[in-house]
Specification:
By secondary structure, the protein is an alpha/beta fold. It has helices spanning about 5-15, 25-40, 45-60, 70-85, 110-125, 140-155, 165-180, 195-210, 225-240, 255-265, 285-295, 295-320, 330-340, 345-350, 355-360, 365-375, 380-385, 390-400, 405-425, 425-435, 435-450, and strands at about 100-105, 130-135, 155-160, 185-190, 215-220, 240-245, 270, 280. Helix 13 crosses helix 16 (about 365-375). Bound molecules: guanosine-5'-diphosphate and magnesium ion.
């Protein structure tokens, strides 16, 4: 599947991957080719436009990583945007009630019955006890089909060939589930060739009778853009919780897998990749993007290079923190740096004992924002010599940063403490012993809350 799309994307990207400079014109050229590849794959037009704009903007604004080519970096941008187009992360089933109910809906032939059995088999592997329910009462053959599949995978099935009420069947099935000690009920419903009112009202009454944990819409990937309107109508009438795209092993062009999430706002939870029971995959946007691009090696190369830069920045920052002439100006630069390279947490992890600090109750990294505002309102002289900050300077600084005198006092006290401790050569020992950590933690927490800052009590040394 997707061979065509993959081929075209690779062609577009290969041209750019070796290029040493990323200019507006070669980015434009590459995105133009990507655009036409996506159009051919039947991706929704608006989604394509948004995607192309995002890629362009990000590619032009991206900071250059020395160890990879700009072209490779561009591929990573395309990959990232593909992942976010498909929903970032996998969306697991949310089964909360006991027994939980999953309702399978969709057009005739989309793969509801097959997918019901596939999900049952998958859930059993996760140590759940599923019960399949035959609620497609219009075709006896449909009930047979589910029973045969259920027998094959040795999962109990509930059916009632004499009932004409799907809601009743589902309620009786719930009872049966409790008797059999089953924890998940999967209701396979009837579909039609197109959406009609009778089918919808039947599904609505079914929904009302058993209030399902999940309503999964099963759609054939080959439907492409047409599937979007199907999803929309079902969603309006019933509120679906997720989608299963089936027949991705077939000649689907990929457009629905790529754009369904963006267009409908509904996550794709699983994909069907064959007729067999095992042919059901959890939908992982990142893996799918890798597969579609077929350039996973380049993507991980760029990821590694970017991580390396973060590591070096964090090391530089750590050295600075430990150097002797650390003043408020440095503090400000470091605060900004911290934000850029993924927050204080990433630096703390590298400091001896830092992991302990970020786990300290009351420690709140968001207090850094307030600190930044106050230091920004200081003059360079004040930053270099905080001791000259008298009352009138304090009034000016707090006005400029919209903070209280008390907050500023806390910052200064805290900075002094920090500076003093940082100047001591026994810093590492202190960090390791944890005695510095509670003081920083308490200080930052109280700054955030704006309460009185109480100097940290002497803590017993941890072992
Ligand atoms: N190749 C392939 N065939 C599938 C997939 N899912 C379902 N099918 C086939 O599609 C046909 C219709 O499936 P069925 O479950 O009966 O659809 P329903 O009418 O929605 O219940 C059957 O022949 C299935 O074997 C899939 O992911 N890949
Ligand atoms: Mg069926």
């Amino acid at each position: 599947m997707f061979e065509n799309l993959t081929g075209k994307l690779q062609q577009a990207l290969r041209k750019i991957s070796g290029q040493g400079i990323m200019s507006e014109s070669n980015i434009s050229e590459a995105t133009q080719e990507i655009r036409s590849a996506l159009i051919d794959a039947d991706v929704n037009y608006n989604v394509i436009n948004e995607f192309v704009e995002d890629v362009k903007r990000e590619a032009l604004g991206a900071e250059v990583i020395q160890t990879v080519t700009p072209g490779q970096q561009f591929i990573k941008v395309v990959y990232d945007k593909l992942v976010s187009m498909m929903g970032e992360a996998a969306a697991p089933l949310e089964l909360k009630k006991s027994p939980s109910v999953i309702m399978m809906i969709g057009l005739h032939g989309s793969g509801k019955t097959t997918s019901s059995a596939k999900i049952a088999a998958m859930l059993r592997k996760q140590n759940r006890r599923p019960l399949l329910v035959a609620a497609d009462i219009y075709r006896p053959a449909a009930i047979d089909q589910l029973e045969i599949l259920a027998r094959e995978i040795e999962i109990p099935v509930y059916s009632d060939r004499n009932s004409s009420s799907v809601a009743d069947i589902a309620l009786s099935a719930l009872k049966r589930a409790r008797e059999l000690n089953c924890d998940t009920v999967i209701v396979d419903t009837a579909g039609r060739l197109q959406i009609d009112q009778q089918m919808i009202s039947e599904l609505v009454s079914l929904k009302q009778s058993v209030s399902p944990d999940e309503i999964l819409l099963v759609a054939d990937a080959a439907l492409g853009q047409q599937a979007v309107s199907v999803v929309d109508s079902f969603n309006k009438a019933l509120g679906i919780s997720g989608m299963i795209l089936t027949k991705l092993d077939g000649d689907a062009r990929g457009g629905s897998a790529l754009s369904m999430r963006k267009v409908t706002g509904c996550p794709i939870k699983f994909v069907g990749v064959g007729e067999k029971i095992a042919d059901l995959d959890v939908f992982h946007p990142d893996r799918m993007a890798s597969r579609i691009l077929g350039m996973g090696d380049i993507v991980s190369l760029v990821e590694k290079a970017a991580e390396e830069i973060d590591r070096k920045e964090a090391e530089k920052l750590r050295d600075k923190l430990m150097s002797k002439d650390f003043d408020l100006d440095d503090f400000l630069t470091q605060l900004r740096q911290m934000k850029k390279i993924g927050g204080i947490d990433s630096i703390l992890k590298m400091l001896p004992g830092g992991a302990q600090l970020s786990a300290t109750p009351g420690f709140d990294a968001s207090a850094l924002v307030g600190m930044e505002a106050m230091i920004s309102s200081m003059t360079p002289k004040e930053r270099a010599n905080p001791e000259i900050i008298d009352f009138s300077r304090k009034k000016r600084i707090t006005r400029g940063s919209a903070r209280s005198i008390q907050e500023l006092n806390e910052l200064l006290t805290q900075f002094q403490t920090m500076q003093k401790i940082l100047r001591q050569t026994s810093l590492i020992k202190k960090l390791m012993s944890g005695s510095l950590l509670p003081s920083l933690g308490a200080g930052m927490g109280s700054l955030k809350r704006g309460s009185n800052y109480t100097p940290p009590k002497k803590k017993k040394r941890r072992r």
